Predict the 3D structure of the following.
Amino acid sequence: MAKRFKEKYPNGTVEFNQHPGDKYNELMNTRLAAGEADDVLFNMNMTAYAKAGYLMDLSSQPWIARMNDSAKTAAQFEGKTYGAFLEVNTFGVFYNKKIFEEQQLVPPTTWDEFLSLNEKLKAQKITPIVEGFKDIWTLQAAYIPIAISTYFGTNPNFERDVYDGKASVNGPEVTGALTQFAELADKGYFNKNSLSIGNDQALQDFIDGKAAMHMMGSWTPGVIDGKTQNFPLGFFIIPAKDGNTVMSAGTDKGLSINAATEHPEEAIALVQLMLEPDMLELYGKDNALSAFNDVNPVFANPAMSEIQAALQAHPGHRNPGDYFPPSVQDALNTALTKILAGGGVGDSAAELAKLYEKDKSKVNF
Amino acid sequence: MRSSRSFYRLKVFFVLPALLLYGIFTLYPFLGSLLYSFTNWDGLQSPDYVGLANYRALFHDKAIMQAAKNTLYVLAVMVLIGNPLSLTLALLLNLPLRSRGLLRTLFFLPALMSLMVISISWGFILQYDGLLNAVLTLFGFENGIQDWLGTMDYALPAVILILLWQGTGFGAVIYLAGLQSVPRELQESAQIDGATGLQRIYHITIPLIMPFITINTFLGIAGSLKLFDVPFVLTNGGPGTATTTLGLLIYKYAFVHESYGYATAAGMLFMILIAVITFLQLSITRRREVEM
């Protein structure tokens, strides 16, 4: 990419500034606050940064029209667009087709069917679902596929309604999703060591056939292809308990421009170049669903096609919790670990509702 | 006269660099924090003054209460069990054993390791497919196996066990230094007067090593109150809030919840709590110190 930029703009130079995982956000916050951030920013806080005035308004850029709806919404704050998202991702259940065939199981069409197939696997002494919850973020990979339908299956505007005071975090949506999650945990459908292993090991156990299912994001087929060949991978989504089955459509890899950049024209040109269809096709090859309507990356793994088919067949919605303050999302994870440790749902939703009220100012609609 | 004044100036001159560093890296951030604790700063947008709202909210914060409970539980165990354990170990290591040099080294070894390394290693031992469960299975206790760090009832005791394992040897070394300062004549004359071993420990050794009890209790209290790293690495405060300490919760308020103002206010109250507890402890144990 840097090479191509140089070909087009011989006077410009692209410098990459990479920072390790955990501290990326903290570091970017500090550098933005100090006015020392880079020109073009990969970031996952687009609306919060836009609200704070750190991002350039890109509403007039031609590439916006090429983005799909969830990416368009996610890049907007108060009617203006502040960047692009390169990928969309979704969450669901990856399953081992060989184990399913041996046990004569098929992907479920109702929540109860999902429970009973777990029960059958457990009765055969096969771990139904393997997860690596020690990594914390992985809790969401198992929660999102359930919560997406429970939150939005009957009311697509659930989070907006909470914001407007027409619905509550301590209502049937969140309580329902927590209760469904607890059903899986309490019946022993997750691996017994789920709280003490991370995602790497959970995925390896899934690849090794130690469990029949692994709830994770849509990048998983690409990761599995990097570790093994010809794994019999299938994908399905968890059917709603009540209401419509909804699929999560998260946006990932946000790209924005620093409002304080000294090179606005170059930055805009670079972003344009990065978003050209052939660049994005190369970027998404084998592992990422594109957030651009005119980009169709090639996927070696057939499970990716199953994911795409599911996305076309079901209504999509941004990830549950995208419009909750960070404190509520953190407390939700805490509630999930408590459920996994046998502590039950209890009054978790009431606690979340209190935090929501306290930190409501951090919700960016 | 002149020379004493210029000597004073010289002294000031030498203190200046340290004072400057202290001012920049301790005093200024501290005063800054005090100001931020009265704001709703979120780390991104410029802070607004909110008066005492943060402090008022803290007193109704259930999560803070739970974390305080966990922290005080750790403190109680460390002071009431850890401290006597260190003293007992020191008394044993003070016996004229041939292997005592080796034993002292072995018991002190954990204190030399970084808490990060210790946390990760113990994680491997205590996890569901870990060493402890393997040993239990080997001896036929399959029913007793647990995800020790993933169970509400066992997670905090497991964290405390690690702290005891790491801290007991260190405390013992401090006590050993104390024990060696107890004059042998006192012990011998007591022995001639017919005092038993326990009587000598209670009436001679303990009063004389009181300053060492003071310092070990102080270190134990301060260490437990600021406990952060072990639960951060091992359990991230979970499962639920079972191992969330005050230090960890304040960290989360700032860097996860992005409520920097609120977290700073919590930090301020926490500092006052530490000051009060350690002041009480020092005034109690100091009173029992005896002059030789």
About this structure: Chain A has a mean pLDDT of 91.
